[in-house]
Amino acid sequence: MHVDNSSENGEDVVMKDKLLPKMKQVSKCSYCENNSGESLKTVPCLECGSRCHIDCINCTAKFKHKILLGDDFFHFKCHKCTDGNERFRRYHLSWVDVVHITLFNLTHNPAARPSGADPSNQFGGEHGPQEYGDSRVYFHYKADVARFIDQHWAYFWTKARGETWINSASSALSTNSTENVPEDGRFESGKAKYNKNGMWALTDDLRFPSSYDSLQQQKTRTIMYTFAEDGSLIELRTQATNGRRKRRTDATPKAAGSRAKKPRAGAHSGNDYASPGAGSKRGARARRAWSIGMWPDIDNPQGPAHMSREETHAAAQYVIESDRLTVWNDKGYRMAKASHGVETGAWYFEAQILPGVRPEANLRIGWSQISGELQAPCGYDVFSYSMRASPCTRFHAAIGSHYGVEFGPGDTIGVLMYLPELDNDERQDLADRKWRPGERYRQFTYSRPESQRPPHADDELPPLPVLAGSELVYFKNGKCLGPAFQKLYLGKYYPAISSYMGGKVKVNLGPDFKFPPPAVWHKDTKIQAISELEFTLPEPTKADEVVGEVNSAEVAGEVKSAEAVESVVEVKSAETVEAAETAKPTETVETVDSAEPKPELATTQALDSAPTTDSIAEPTPETAAEPTEPKHVTDTDATTDVTQDESSSVMDMTQNQPSADSAVPADPSEQPPSDSGEVKSSPPSAELKSKLVIDVQPEPSTDQTSSAEPTNDQMPNAI
Length: 719
Fold this sequence. Notes:
Blueprint: E1 15-16, E2 42-44, E3 51-53, E4 74-77, E5 87-91, H1 95-108, E6 139-140, H2 141-151, H3 153-156, H4 165-175, E7 187-189, H5 190-194, E8 199-202, H6 215-219, E9 222-227, E10 233-235, E11 247-248, H7 281-287, E12 290-294, E13 319-320, E14 326-328, E15 334-337, E16 345-354, E17 362-368, E18 384-388, E19 393-396, E20 399-402, E21 412-419, H8 424-433, E22 440-441, E23 444-448, E24 471-476, E25 479-486, E26 494-500, E27 504-508, E28 520-521, E29 525-529, H9 542-583, H10 589-594, H11 599-609, H12 621-624, H13 635-640, E30 693-694, H14 715-718
Helix pairs in contact: 1-2, 1-4, 2-4, 9-11
């Protein structure tokens, strides 16, 4: 029996399935001619509508036992409709589909329920089945649902596990519950009905997951996989997309001296990653793009590298001592970055751990792009990576996993970032992100077409290119701890320190290190100290010299013209005075002196009283730049960087997530301040204020820090 595993045009490609004329499904198998209405393992033929038994289909004979109950997300055409050339392929599954299939099998197939000890303790907690009086069977979102998905991961997808996959499963439960979708919710919350945290059940346990698909969802179902003989998935080739992959989409820059328009009441501002122009057609187009908010990169300043006090680089509450290397923060987690950043090469710095100001002090040490959130710990978003002192944990995108060993006062942590040589497209990408003189310094939207988002990618995947071969490695007192992160996102990175409750560090940017790193990395890349990034003005080019000569000539011409006018006025004034003295008697001189000045004299006085170039007032950076406006961290943000045992034991490095040896719960210090929660609006000051005009607005804020952290029981219902 031949199985047709090719697309309509003969190529194995990912394709959108065309919506066939709606046909009434027949509860009769076209193979065995028996009733299939009560079977939980059937799939409808797209041509004739017959709901066929999976066990009867010829092309699934070798892996029919692997297909789960209730799963009919297949592009299937039976043997009668294809003259014996059956067609059987897998559609792309969303998280809602996967969670629904999981609960369907947990409910109807007791043998499929996870059993035995969890060696990683990743899925601990109360587990099902549990019944509370409504005839439904409840299961725990982590101990049952997540564990089942983990065991059957290769059945659903070929992608690697991301660190946020358990959160994604939890979100699918809550957003499709009867509380959020009262008229047609798929899932029933045990928390809402019986105060049973984390327990979930199917609203209708006999309804197939595919029956919830809307007409639009049916139109957009994508054929993603064909099958090997053993039933394993084979991903199809993705169709090529047109156009460039990403570019800045901010508005046309205004003149540098123009005043910023203040946002209307209730509008988002500050470091807000929503698309701009909400409520407008332009904003609607932006929201359909695969996008993220970013701040423009800035060239490295002149002079030696140091821990920067610029508002683009350090939180306002951060203490940077006079040596510009010793840093700490008095309360909740904040971040400070070095003045100089890197885009390619192997770069190294050290952090000497000093005694903390408070007993509960903690630290995170790593690297961050300029868009990394200053009012939160390093590793809080997709723009930064870090390692925490205690417990020893690596963080990226607010997800932590066990890494390395703990460190404290007296230890020296070395941090090495390797960024491979960039190609032309990557270099152009970074050039497009840079702040342009004359523009306001404002956030822009970095985007790629939605069509370029991988169909099987997690919703959290940002549109940032990944640098193959890049990595971040830590050293403790000269001993290499191995790679903490690999396949980093493309960007310009700065050494970054986050301090909690008085955690104190003295940064050593080189060149003399206490524990020198290896001479080279990846065989032939020289490891350089951050101190080697000292910026000097480039040598003037011939074009610059020509422009300078033209400007000098213009200035000289203006001076000569002014001198000529002044000499003519002086001559005319002298002639006028002489003529007046000759024509009038001596006794009338007093009357002439007190009379209205003649036009020639008025002209002279006007020239004498006109302001010179030096006396014209220039707007100062303080008057040109508006104050910064903080943004409060939302509850959703605050709950993200908490109980890290929800992350998987395998990292999705293709999505730039660290691989986890075991998930590690975060301590209360890991939550960014929830009461003040200021978020930088990132206007530069001092060295940069004279050049940048900031598009921000003031808002009062407080400096209070809460160490409260949501518990495991709170997480599934909060997501």
